[in-house]
Amino acid sequence: MTDEIPGVNMEDLRLKGFRVHALQASQELPLRRGRRDFYKMGLVNGDMTVQYGGELLELKGTVLFFVNPKVPHSVVSRVNRTSGYACLFTETFMNSRELHESPLFRAGDSPVIPLDSVQAALMDTIFRQMLAVYQEDYPYKSDLIRNCISLVLHEALRIQPPKQAAAFQNGAGRVTHLFLDLLERQFPIERPNEPLRLRNPQEFAERLSLHVNYLNRAVKQVTGKPTSGHIAARIAAEAKALLQYTDWNVADIAYALGFEYPSYFNNYFKRLTGITPNTFRKV
Question: Any coiled-coil ranges, and where (predicted)?
């Protein structure tokens, strides 16, 4: 089987549920882009440009990064030599609830946390320990790796608490959290015959047993962005991913995203991006 990541046996990763490795100092770039079926977190020291969810992120110095498998991503370029570690794991290996509820893997948030020298030293120790355990025949290896992953996640949140953590303590914050979680749980779309079910604020409000006006006020108050804006941005991001990483025709993508006719989808996509779906696919 051809590895999707240089030096990583993907079949072994899927069988064991986890993988820890040191980052290669250099490699042929760019890596193959696309969605994968594993989560990833790493410690990187150096300069790197990563495409994540359609945006270019600059990783400079020493940083922690967290990759949600639902978000298309790839390394675009590296400057000088980079070093560090990466830990890949499947959803079934970890507690899925811990992953789904962690703001570190929330689509739309930055997956990068800059570290100072003390924080970098702590993370380096944890990742070195994970790598050492991974290379041993310790019978409880899986449990120890799982605990190390949880430790990294909690230390990362301690270093950089989520921006909306305080807001979640009030009613508007909790409603916004519920809305964003419900929105994200609809993705990724994996089959064209299972169309998106919630596509407008009214449908989300009904699912959450709220009045739509209250939902709109809460989301706007906490995020500064209207409910419809969040929905439109997420549908547009999924449309781009389906156009880039599947061979579905535009009509199938339109149906999967809940549009009754392809022409409706074409107009919607062009209004948000400035180009048609077919033009985007050719770029």
Answer: none
Residues 23, 152 share a domain: yes
CB 16 within 8 A of CB 127: no
CATH assignment at residue 44: 2.60.120.280
Single residue among 132, 159, 186 that ends a domain in this structure: 159
The strand pairing partners of 39, in sequence order, are 89
At 190, which CATH number? 1.10.10.60
Do the bridges between strand 55-67 and strand 112-114 make them parallel or antiparallel, or are there none, so unpaired? antiparallel
d(CA 225, CA 227): 7
Nearest to 248 by CA among 236, 264, 262: 262
Q: Which residues contact 142 (CB under 8 A, 6 or more apart)?
A: 16, 17, 18, 93
Query: Please, are residues 68 and 101 in contact by the beta-carbon 8 Å criterion?
Result: no
142 and 250 assigned to the same domain: no
pLDDT tens, position by position, 171-214? 788 888 889 888 988 888 888 888 898 999 999 999 999 999 99
Residue-wise pLDDT tens digits, 228-253 = 999 998 999 889 988 988 889 999 99
Q: How many domains does the chain have?
A: 2
Give me the residues paired with residue 212 across strands.
none
3 domain-assigned = no
AA letter at 141 = K
